[in-house]
């Protein structure tokens, strides 16, 4: 199953195969992670904030691919997408392991996750080469943290172009 996190309101993606979509909807707001570690210690795999996004980590754990569709925000993803990524903290285990000579959290779920990003320029903006380089670096770092394989960052001139892509 593909897990798609997008900042496009009421997004209706073109998708091949089974998927679960997280996107902005009327009356449904994602809260910030408060760093309580309840998803690690009190109720492993489930966030203690009950706003409809408490299972984000488990959803990543059940996914074969994490697809991000986001506006470029200064060489990173949008605040909406970042809040959802933060709420996926329970995807990883609280214990540590050395990965590529660096200390990272252990893998909680035994899946072979792949990460793909589709980044579009916000209205009237362009994505600079420096921002593209930063986004590529963040995706690689996310891949290490998620014990996942980065599978590309694709850039689009605007939101409409990103919405036309089959995921």
Structure description:
By secondary structure, the protein is an alpha/beta fold. The protein is built from four helices and seven strands. It has a five-stranded parallel sheet with strand order 2-1-3-6-7. The N and C termini lie close together (12 Å). The model has no long low-confidence stretch (mean pLDDT 94).
Oligomer: single chain
Which strand order does the major sheet show? Answer: 2-1-3-6-7
Query: Segments where pLDDT lies below 50 for 5+ residues?
Result: none
Helical residues, percent: 10-25%
N- and C-termini, Cα separation: 12 Å
How does the overall form come out from the CA principal axes? Answer: globular
Rg over CA atoms, rounded to whole Å, is 16 Å
What is the string of helix and strand elements? EEHEHEEEHEH
Number of strands: 7
Mean pLDDT: 94
How is the main sheet built? 5 strands, parallel
Structural class: alpha/beta
Strand-residue proportion: 25-35%
Tally of helical runs? 4
Helix and strand layout, with pairings?
Blueprint: E1 2-6, E2 19-22, H1 56-61, E3 65-71, H2 79-86, E4 92-99, E5 102-107, E6 114-120, H3 129-145, E7 149-156, H4 159-163
Parallel strand pairs: 1-2, 1-3, 3-6, 6-7
Antiparallel strand pairs: 4-5
């Amino acid at each position: 199953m593909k897990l798609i996190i997008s900042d496009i309101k009421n997004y209706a993606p073109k998708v091949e195969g089974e998927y679960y979509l997280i996107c902005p909807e009327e009356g449904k707001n994602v809260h910030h992670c408060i760093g309580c570690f309840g998803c690690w210690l009190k109720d492993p795999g489930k966030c203690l904030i009950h706003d409809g996004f408490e299972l984000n980590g488990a959803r990543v754990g059940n996914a074969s691919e994490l697809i991000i569709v986001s506006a470029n925000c200064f060489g990173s993803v949008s605040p909406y997408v970042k809040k959802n990524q933060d709420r996926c903290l329970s995807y990883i285990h609280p214990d540590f392991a050395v990965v590529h000579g660096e200390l990272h959290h252990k893998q909680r779920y035994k899946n072979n996750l792949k990460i793909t990003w589709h980044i579009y320029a916000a209205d009237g903006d362009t994505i600079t080469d420096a921002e593209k380089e930063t986004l590529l670096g963040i995706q690689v770092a996310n891949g290490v943290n998620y014990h996942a394989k980065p599978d590309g960052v694709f850039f689009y001139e605007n939101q409409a172009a990103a919405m036309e892509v089959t995921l």
